[in-house]
Specification:
Rossmann fold; 10 strands; alpha/beta; single chain; 3 domains; about 350 residues
Amino acid sequence: MSVEFFFRLGGMVVLGIGGIWFGIFFSNLAGEPAAVRAVAFGMVGMVAGLVLTPYFTTRPIRAIRRTLNQVSAKTLFMGILGLVVSLVVSALLAFPLSLLPQPFGEVLPVALALAFCYLGVSVFVSRQNDIYQVLSTFTLRSPDGAAGETQSARIILMDTSVIIDGRVADIARTGFLPGELVIPRFVLNELQYIADSGDNLRRQRGRRGLEVLAQLQKDTSISVRISDIDVEGTNAVDDKLVILARQMRVPVLTNDYNLNRVAEIQGVTILNINELANAVKAVYLPGETLEVRVIQEGREQGQGIGYLDDGTMVVVQDGNEYIGKEIPTVVTKVLQTAAGRMIFSKPEDDF
């Protein structure tokens, strides 16, 4: 039996007794026999208690718990800190305000306390990152007493796709992802679901993601944490990630194009692995020479296709006759697309 059941019974008894009392009270006022009216009011009170009690007891508590579960620990701490600071300031101002003539001496201290509490919580939560950095400056110091380097308080949420991709492990080891990598439990559950899939390709992708996650956890130079924080109201993992990132005011690490666009529309910062890979590729200008191994024919007549070591596609005009050979080519044009960078070139002999 649940806790709600006992609350319903308690509410039924309390409101039933209250109904009987009201029935007797109104019967005495009307000068009529109290039995019938007391029973009627008692029955109404019992039904009302049985039905309405959860809406005033267990369900508000559950709603508060769900809300608190969706709030990050840092946000919750800053909200409580703002409330404490507001109450202290209100207490200091309450005594001089209480000396004012009535009714100001009674109303103003309470009104000021409520206003300060709202303002304090709002300011501390909205500026939590700045306040945390200021507090870290005073609390995190080196052994010689001088202010040391503050530890990065940055949290980065990880998407399922970027874990399966695997490149995040190498990027994290280079130090280009400062802070803590957080994997929500619902992302881990999706990864496990993919690893247990009946489709062989999906199963291999899921197992690869689990292996990458295990590597990240074993590497002591990388801070990784699996969080039980969840989002109510939706079952889609991408939607949960976007909502969670908005609530925590943290970026999402992904290589999912659709998630990237949806998150940007909602004002969430995205760290896209593919965009990073494109950004660090070598820059080639028209006129430069490339050594390219032509491996297949292109779409257009006479074209040959080759790839650089970083995966960049090179389209070689009149290169179909060189398939299987590595030849020097001259860059003619560089095209940046959503899928990556594409280089057009011609065999050096044609110049």
